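Subject: Interface between my chains keeps coming out wrong

I've been trying for a while to get a sensible model of this assembly. When I model each chain on its own everything looks fine, but I need the whole thing in one frame so I can look at the contacts. Pasting all components below, labels as-is. Any help appreciated, I'm running out of ideas.
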Amino acid sequence: MVNFIIFCCLAVMIVVMSILAVTAKKILRAATYLLFVLIGTAGLYLLLNYHFLAAVQVSVYAGGIVVLFIFAIFLTSNKGEMVETHNIRRIIYGVLTSVAGIALAGFVLLKHRFLYSGNATVEGDTEINMKMIGTALMGTEKYQYLLPFEVLSVLLLACIIGGILIARKK
Amino acid sequence: MIKMEYYLIISILMFFIGIYGFISRRNMLAMLISLELVLNAVEINFAVFNRYLFPERMEGLFFTLFGIAITAAETAVAIAIIINAYRSIGNVNVTKLNKLKD
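Reply #2:
Try treating it as a single job with all components included. I did that and got this:
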């Protein structure tokens, strides 16, 4: 019951903050609302008993990406500038697209019956311990993830080099 | 008990709010913020499906982990491009950005 109340609070916070993040007039406020959405998502991961994922979400998103956004906003915005929106036709197209998408996806979701019943791990406090995550991340056998991990490290290296190459002064 | 559909409804709402922002915003940084919302919704889906349907496995957990890392890389490159575009055209308005070479 307590979990459900917490879930409702998080749900309301996430949806309201998402709407504010895409409609805010000042771009810095939009970044702040995005921060709240990401922290709410970390709360959802905690409710799902994925504690490691919540820690990663807070440290990478809230600690890394939002700070990057705020620096980029300070570097690129002129003083007192508001975000201009497109003309009204474009906004109407956007609203129509989103409402149609929500209707379609919601219809498919609510029509489908998912086969889970009384899954004990959802309610209980069965967190995946760190040893299992570490072995699965660093192993080379079936259902273990060393190769994607290494590919990701190469991707990050390429991203560092690309970032320096693109953003350096001529 | 929190049903699985509740999580998925939140995720659907977040995804399409992000799509609305991506269509209606003109500032490139605001479009990137909307993109973050979309990717975040997808990652919630991975975690929820893993927890509710296959609780003895860890595939969704790792997809979410790798997804977060890829999102971070993509954001860093995109912000580098946006700052570079700001240097050459003086603002971050996407309608003014109609040539890539200067």
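Reply #3:
Confirming on my end. The first helix of chain A runs from residue 2 to 23.
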